[in-house]
User: Which sequence fits this backbone?
């Protein structure tokens, strides 16, 4: 089962560490950096129903959250009120022809959600629909607030009640309170944004307006699309492609965009110079066919691969990616290095929510059930294996092990991101430091622990090259340089 | 299809009215005065789980609401927070061993709900669980507020947001706001009660207290039970019997009862002399094996039957009740009149939520599918048929028609309540006046319209005899004498 | 918990037996003689769809089997073949608008099934649809064969394969084999009947014929109905009432009825003089509003009550029935004895398939959850309690206990059937002898064991009076006089 | 919408054909050659449960059939009989911990199925479990018989009844009949095989034996695996990898393998020289990580791509594959041609059975919802697009259109199989000839119809190179050279 051939003293302890990783209670899911949420909004000025289009939009954003899905719609010309349906499950599990056809209206918002286990209850599904002083709002939110605890406490002291544990409810309260003084809902959104700190991309529907807003640092993406007389807001451009809409432009960090039949209005009063866009959107979260803030995700991954080839070259016979996100970087590595690109893994795409995970002790591990190696492709070869990240190390160890068991002579692991060292407070579910393999081990140690013949991370100083040299990114999980000072206590948990 | 044998001119128009009733689009469900809600609470001072007992308690209260069910529990010795599960459906559809076993805790509240169609959405299911300045509250509510619209507006103007359309959310807000000033949660409940007008029986769980409260008029029932070291609050005593608990006493109108291991505390500062207990609990809503405010429901229905025999005697061969609630009154009529009691109807108890209703034009009507006549029992006989009420008249007409078709020579209808003439604002779903057959027609006309040979209602002046002569009842739906002035606009709808 | 007041030596052991019964692991379901199956067929000569009418027919027969339900239909004018849908569950759980609307055709059969636990799998649900030499047959069967094991073996030895464990498959095979020689399907049915021994009421649909058949002894009921140009076959007349059809006549024991647009044909060649109609249909199985072989079920139960009053008189204040089937007998007892009739029990009708049964040791027993006592109705009274049967005795002991706990001074139990002493081989699920309380105990002992003050069974010699003096009944479960010699080995199990 | 820039007369009609293809009612599903079935068997000589392992095995074979799934198990040391659970749906939809844990036993077979629409009913799901003269058999079958109609008729004339429309039932009958004379079940299987013509890979479990059989031509794959003391039979080796088993060998065409604790026995009496292995397993059906009859599927696709590069070279900037099966061939084309390989498409893997397909007229087409183009990767480039086949042409036209819309300057389509011209009678669901675009159009016409700049198919004469030069293949769908004479009437439909 172990790959080590030399029985040297030092190696033994390393092998032991490797064995330990291989035998840890199976936690394939726990070893993935989870996406957070996806938001989508649509407003058809011609009055046609938008729920079906939002369904396809959410379907294209499914990779951003597989736990719950929801759609809220209103009829700008009909009776007041918002119809909403949401539940735990994938978009195509939550919605069927029957419930979708009841969601008739020409304006609407949708949401897909991932959440930490504790808050994985139906009550926390989005969109949130609230009745307040000026009518009804529907709201979908992607991100995580840093001052949510303080704001909840403050609101509580003026009599607020909370029925969920999501940050979105805090934002909704603030919008409602600001609306008591502000003449319009978009100004209320803007004013509420002055009070919240953190990462948020918001899509809000009021009875006659569709509003998009992005936090001043621009942590999370949000863009505008258009199809005939219908306007869209979406976390990613891939959803615009799916619904046949053209990309209009990104919402700017700090901007509040108000979409109405009278025109598209922009409030940039909260825009600031310093941005901190989440680099992990490019590395792993976003779909490769999306373009975020002007940079294509696929291209950025190709570049990462090229950089790896420059900084961590190796003599090898084959470059392979760990599907799916490792593939473009592998292609980049191949182009830059001249080592042939190939496929080494077949991924089983039928794993669904109800999949029965192998129990500890069963001969089928989660990794093996989901990934199989193309033996003939790797046998006898020196393989460069590109993956997007190493979290706890268990998955990496198992995949390296699969390759060795399939006959690979050498396995050189290249990671298309720097090493995770710090927690994220802005909506990415990175485990606490003590679980991050990189926080307690040197690269050399990690290399041995995962059983690789060599290991190279993307150099953090070259990270910005992935997005064309722009440096307005948040790389805090690698560097600890938080754009906003993190809270004293760990408030992570209820991201939207 | 018609039963009339004489083809006289006058009769023809009557027959036409009868035929019209018989042929109206099937609305069996719409022709029932619906129960509203049932509440149940439990607190085991020995620390055992209460969710299973609440399940059986709700099961016994199922007749009070078949649309949604929910249970919320907390652990007074464990981590903070309340676990809640609720969904659309019957108690035994919503709960299974899996979700019930996750609701562990020694204090809890439960709810079954009926609602008007418009608000029949999952968001409105109870119990309501809220986080507020002092922690978490679970709340179940039976009743309807008269000033909910004003209160919502008022709360909105101080920044409140509403995520449901149920009155319970308004009450929760008021409790939360009062808690900013009141030293205890029970005082907050008491103070909130000062602000709300209408009918409400409340069961509230705070982290360490189970609180029951009843509005000062005592519209809705609520009682206290005990089993070893476990205390209960319940809409009806039948649920106490089911869980093997003893009846302790009724909560008094206006009283706030606080149940803690340190003792049961009572705050009667809102108690008042004038009560207005809903007489329809005795006539139809409550289960006959319940005792409400000291009076047995079964016995009160027997008395109603006896009064009918005194005030509307008739020569006949058989007295029958329309199942289920007509049976005790029929027995009373039989005892008083000496006319033999018998069964005439077999009710199909397998009708569930998913039952496919006969379409207009199909030969099977909803009434016929649910009720069949024992032909041999009624053929050739003069039958006294006792029912609890006439709403639109369609069901009565159809049942009379079934009896005649089965060979009954005469059908004398006796109704164990006075005629419905006025809307209810306190939580009973009586249709609007224009749909009430009694509001536009004389007794004689109604008699002809439903095809009966004679018709007699319970005399409203003798209503109080049903409950032993006590006159502290609300009979507004018969008399229009509302204990609280009704609102100018029709605010009915979202009862709890 | 015990009701005994005298602490005499003898009594102690009796009380112990009573306590034991009360404390046995809860087996409310196991203490009921289960219905078997219900069959229904329809053929609309005008070509309209019959599936919706079959749905309502099965719904009226639901009491005969709550485990699985199914409908098979064909189109006599359309493409060949039979569409069938069946599953585990109640009629209204199995069918919805979607799957029912796909079952279009003018001829069809339906089935509801109860089964013993071991065979409770979807494969055994009916109707059975088979393709054979002459096309397609749909078949629904109520009963149990005595020679099924031999026939299966015999068929196996000529290469038959079996995909279910139900007798109906054996019958289907025989019909198919006979069809190789017989000129018509109805003759094949007749010839197959020559080979099978036991109880069976069959409804068979061939491409253009609806066929009903009843075994020569007539164990199970089957009748013919008519509505305009639609003909029906049904286990009970109550289903005819529900679908608005008139009763035409019963199928005679041994008769094969063939319904076609050309006429209704009858083959009585297998009819015989000796009949053995199951008396338990009248005592318990059939719905009281059904008429079986010319005798009303309700009336027969009234008579049983009257006989009990004659043979087992007692001084008492109140006669009550154990719902539902005990009520008519209680009424009969009251009429004959002059003791007032009343209600003592409220039954919770919301118990569904998914109901979570109380666990051993929980304070809520299955009996208490399903039945509650009207305390005020029985307190201080001497009560005659009528039930239809005693099986193991546990339920009787618990109900007597409930009455005593509610304050009844005396409880005199009267059973509207003789004591169960022998197994049934014809389709009724009577437990084996060692579980029948009557097979090992005298009436006096049973009386003490169930905690009653007196106990009286219906005299077996007067059983025939229940059905107007006719003696062509099967009373083998009481007398051991089997109309057909029972098999040497216990072949019970797979009744249809 | 059209891509054509020159408005020449000829082009117009071509463009019209292209438009027609693009606008045809969406039939993405209909434009895929469907897999048929996958079979899997396991026998643990140490007596441990095999159902969980069969679950993972079927999961790895899911690509061979997504319509129904089932597992049947027996206990060789316990009570007789086979437990089976099967239903419509994916493996992870059909099975959950509850139903899987009930399937305990040390021997078992599993099945995944695709079927033509008409037979997509639960009754046709496999495995088939039959009781016959010698006990119980479980059976799973992949393939299609040519003489099923004749055999059914013949069996009918000796009294057989059929409850499904699958060929497997015919095979089961033959085995049962042969068993009357044959001393062992494996000989019965062998003898039954003498009677059937067509394609079949069978896995059969008898009480103590696991039997695998493959038709004499070897149309469908079947292999043997081993893990400690557990033996496996599987359609593909990828399932062996998933469950951690080693590949032992392929079952030979015509061979009957009997696996028992006493040894693995082989009966090769039906083996013949002429084989006709389905080449489409390599082209599209099988998972690339499988090895079939000694040839790796991935490698064979690489070779196909290389041949295409040799026979249909073109000047271009980028080679892309249509996911998933087009990718290896694209890699092969790239290697051979030197044109860089890249990704052009992102496939949405979340499409499940319940996915709501876009309606005609909606702006989201099925193709667009499932595939999106990486614009930046293809814009301005001359693209070689490799797909595995063209069926009706609609999907190809739409994908070419997507590439052009994304800015591709030229799109050269290369197909890694010859053109479909003939129906398959051996279990592959190829549409009838009139729907095959290649049967009525020249390559040049097809090229224009799908909007490509050039089009090249794999040369049928070089097909055998894909599998290392072996010529024992069935290529009848391309050549019409059927290894067995096809039936006069079209009997396709119920493949297993």
Assistant:
């Amino acid at each position: 089962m172990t790959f080590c051939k030399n029985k040297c003293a030092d190696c033994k302890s390393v092998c032991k560490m490797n064995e330990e990783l291989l035998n840890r209670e199976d936690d394939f899911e726990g070893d993935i950096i989870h996406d957070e949420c996806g938001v989508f909004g649509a407003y058809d000025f011609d009055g046609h129903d938008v729920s079906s289009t939002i369904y396809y939009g959410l379907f294209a954003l499914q990779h951003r959250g597989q736990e719950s899905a929801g759609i809220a719609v209103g009829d700008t010309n009909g009776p007041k009120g918002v119809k909403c349906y949401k539940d735990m499950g994938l978009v195509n599990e939550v919605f069927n022809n029957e419930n979708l056809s009841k969601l008739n209206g020409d304006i609407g918002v949708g949401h897909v959600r991932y959440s930490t286990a504790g808050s994985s209850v139906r009550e926390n599904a989005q969109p949130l629909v609230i009745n307040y002083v000026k009518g009804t709002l529907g709201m979908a939110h992607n991100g995580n607030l840093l001052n949510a605890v303080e704001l909840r406490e403050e609101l509580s002291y003026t009599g607020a009640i909370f029925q969920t544990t999501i940050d979105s409810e805090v934002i909704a309260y603030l919008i409602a309170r600001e609306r008591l003084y502000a003449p319009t809902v978009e100004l209320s959104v803007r004013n509420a944004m002055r009070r919240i700190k953190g990462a948020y991309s918001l899509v809000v529907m009021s009875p006659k307006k569709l509003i998009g807003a992005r936090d001043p640092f621009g942590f999370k993406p949000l863009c505008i699309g258009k199809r005939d007389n219908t306007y869209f807001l979406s976390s990613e451009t891939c959803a615009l492609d799916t619904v046949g809409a053209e990309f209009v432009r990104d919402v700017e960090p700090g901007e509040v965009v108000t979409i109405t039949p009278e025109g598209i209005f922009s409030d940039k009063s909260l825009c600031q110079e310093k941005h901190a866009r989440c680099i992990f959107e490019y590395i792993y979260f976003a779909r490769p066919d999306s373009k975020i803030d002007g940079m294509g995700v696929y291209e950025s991954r190709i570049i990462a691969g090229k950089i790896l080839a420059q900084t961590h070259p190796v003599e090898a016979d084959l470059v392979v990616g760990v599907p799916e996100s490792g593939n473009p970087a592998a292609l980049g590595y191949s182009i830059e290095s001249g080592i042939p690109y190939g496929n080494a893994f077949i991924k089983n795409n039928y794993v669904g929510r109800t999949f029965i995970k192998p129990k500890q002790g069963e001969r089928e591990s989660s990794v093996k059930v989901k990934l199989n190696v193309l033996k003939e492709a790797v046998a006898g070869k020196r393989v460069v294996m590109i993956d997007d990240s190493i979290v706890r190390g268990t998955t990496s160890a198992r995949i390296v092990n699969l390759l060795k068991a399939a006959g690979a002579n050498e396995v050189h692991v290249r990671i298309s991101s720097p090493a995770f060292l710090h927690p994220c407070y802005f909506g990415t579910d990175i485990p606490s430091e003590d679980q991050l393999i990189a926080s307690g081990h040197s690269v050399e140690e990690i290399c041995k622990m995962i059983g690789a013949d060599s290991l190279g991370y993307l150099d953090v100083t070259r990270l910005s090259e992935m997005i064309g040299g722009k440096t307005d990114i948040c790389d805090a999980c690698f560097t600890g340089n938080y754009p906003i000072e993190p809270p004293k206590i760990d408030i992570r948990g209820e991201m939207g």
Q: What stands out?
A: The longest helix of chain D spans residues 9-23. The first strand of chain D starts at residue 37 and ends at 44.
